[in-house]
Amino acid sequence: MIGTLAAADSGVRSDSPASTAYGRRRGVVREVLLNIASVLGAACIALTLAALLFNITLIMFKTGSMSPTIPAGSLALVREIPASEAKVGDVVTVDRPDQLPVTHRVVATEPGVGGQTILTLRGDANPVDDPAPYTVSTVRIVMASIPGLAVAVVAMSNPVALGSVTLVVASFITWYFWPRSQRVERTTRGRHGPDTGSFGGSVG
Description:
38% of the residues lie in helices and 25% in strands. The protein is built from 4 helices and 7 strands. The chain has a domain of 91 residues: Umud Fragment, subunit A (Ribbon). A 7-stranded antiparallel β-sheet has the order 1-2-7-3-4-5-6. One of its GO terms (cellular component) is membrane. It is found in: Membrane. Its main location: membrane.
């Protein structure tokens, strides 16, 4: 009798339950990471549009003059408004010539000349008002703040940190969009070795 013998595959098939579960787990991880990256990207786009369309920007609190309401290291979302719209109790940022801006609470307001407004400010942690009122035409009102987030922003502004994040994101995107068929083929070859195909033989 003459017959043909086919080579037997003694390894785990790529469509086995174990392989299917592994592929499903990898798929879930990919989707989670992609969703996180999408949310971060959407947040960046939203902040950019807000800055362009609504004069909304971010500021960092380096001191604790507004503690405990806004502690040092907080990141705040601010929007530019006419100084005449600022009310007692609002927390506003005032730009000062040749000095850093100051962000304190409005304790008094009165009309100035030439469309300007005179604001008296005080930090929540300070026992007295600021040394002198501020005569301004615009201010930036604090809309929301997040404690501790300024530290992360400062850390991310470091060139080494930025380069590392860029490398990680680029690697993830390359891995995610790499053709899956090639990944499966390489994984299968690594498990089972090269494909020997089938061989013929005769038996008597």
